[in-house]
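User: I'm writing a short report section on ligand binding and want a predicted complex to refer to. Could you take this sequence and guanosine-5'-monophosphate and write out the structure as tokens? A short remark afterwards would be nice.
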Amino acid sequence: MSIVFIVSAPSGSGKSTLVHRLMECERDRIMFSVSWTTRTARGQEVEGEAYHFATRDEFERAIKKDEFLEWAEVFGNYYGTHRSVLARAEAEGKDLVLDIDVQGARQLRARLPDAVSVFILAPSRKVLEERLCCRSEDSAEVINRRLMGAVREIRGSDGYDYVVVNDDVARASDKLWSIVKAERSRRRRMEGEVRRILDTFEQND
Ligand code: 5GP
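Assistant: Sure. The structure tokens for the complex follow:
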């Protein structure tokens, strides 16, 4: 069974960098869930890598056909996780990382109670504002909207299993990777391995 890792953060908290670093360490064992979105591609974003870019029409048709595990409207655009993503991770025997917002995380936790959720936070509003301004991808108005969104998201983070404060990228990456490794070692996920070891004892009885 794939472990589903939900990673959320207010935008500018450094989540993408942390998820990238995790994927580098875990390339063979974790699949990144490529979401659908109706927003337009930013900078170097490539179709099928960062997102599947869809029209509002296409997205709404997929909602009607119940094709999403979860979906939400964020900053005026639709974002959603297609059901086929989890099926593919299961088929390939990989765990799955989803970079989704707090609304999507709530839906997913209700649907998949075993999912592990991690909330990433910049250490302060000042740091978040600096990071958003540095990116210079967005207008002042969008940055302001993102800062207001951050407050809402942080307040909505109480149902998450873990919090990682991204004050230092190397340290925060390490924590995220440790969470992944610790979750894999949970007793209920080690049933097969424990059984195999127990068999080696029982064969000698
Ligand atoms: P951005 O436009 O900056 O890439 O993403 C904006 C927000 O949408 C981020 O908080 C991101 O986590 C969220 N997001 C991305 N993909 C999904 C998705 O499939 N579902 C949900 N609910 N949120 C998503």
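A remark for your report: The chain has a mean pLDDT of 94. Helices lie at 15-25, 56-64, 83-92, 102-111, 125-135, 140-155, 169-184, 191-202.
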